[in-house]
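Sequence in, structure out.
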Amino acid sequence: MSDLFEAAGLTPEAPTPLADRLRPRSLAEVVGQDHLLGPGGPIGRMAAARRLSSMILWGPPGTGKTTIARLLAAQAGYEFQQLSAVFSGVADLKKAFETARLRRAAGRATLLFVDEIHRFNRAQQDGFLPFVESGVVTLVGATTENPSFELNGALLSRCQVYVLRRLDNAALSSLLIKAEAHVRRTLPLDPAAREAMSAMADGDGRYLLSLAETLFNIGSDTPANTALLDTAAMSQVLQRRSPAYDKDREEHYNLISALHKSVRGSDPDAALYWLARMLEGGEDPLFIARRLVRMASEDVGAADPLSLLVTTAAKDAYDFLGTPEGELALAQACVHMACAPKSNAVYTAFGAARRAAKETGSLMPPAHIRNAPTRLMKDLGYGKGYQYDPDTPEGFSGQNYFPDGMERPTFYRPKGDGAEARVKDRLDRWAALRTKQVEEW
């Protein structure tokens, strides 16, 4: 690791963060990624064969992307070269490729690790292609963003994408045990506080070790017989970070999708959880309000017409009250719709009607329902024979309202749940009356 210290202007004896001191020294020591690094995992098999393919490591922060790349190069006997897309430009890329070309001429392979590779623009990403194809470099890119959205298709087609998982409780616990062994002290936490600290890390091993280091530093000045910190005391010492959430990227769409599907799936508890996750992450409440209104029409529909009123009222309530009071109105709307009967019959019917409208867009309404404001129009038969439904014995005339010559379609098919049950009964009765009158005509 001396090259890292020299690059930072430090000596190996300089104080370093606990996370750096505990970096794994072999792939077997990396925790939480056995599905990739184990003997049967794809990366584990490549390392054992000492033949590497270009790859993209996609995962949350603190899951070991940089460490895996470095250890993979060491185990396979490749020269490790690192770039950061945040700090590197075209000149740095050209220099890296030229260095790798010279190494290859000397019979040595290069693993080029590019951190935050998604930050390179499309043209810069294209610049990797000839060097990856010719084998000048074996590319290992690291990204926290969905490669499908952020990386060129041409580059993706030349790389395997491997998904790193958030560290689970077992992996986080093993890191804390390793940290305690390294500093030869136990964390000054009771069991509940220890679990709470792991939850604060949100699957990020590096952040967990930073929290542990803070407690170790504080504990070094604390008498040995001091009582262990409970959750409340620990929270006063450690700053809880905001949940990982980017309103412009994949997490934004994943969480709003989870909220929408929880409401559609009639699970009020899950709906409240995802609503809270989005609000805690800093999402614009009015964005959520707009999605709730959409759910009211798309998923609940005529089975509970009140949902549309509830969601628009929740939007108005938030406009009036703001945060945090107005957020309760959004929660009320979520719970109301999750507990309501569901029907997408109107949504489906409108889609079918639009398709029919595109196919028959030039057909005129039948003459008896056309507007007849002038004498000429009346002479042409506009409005002739129109029956005013409220004046008929059944309150229903059964006349045709589709264009002449167009076969009558059925777009709206109510599900029969909630308020739609009564609608379905009325429509069935009217359909029978219409059939009867057609037969009489």
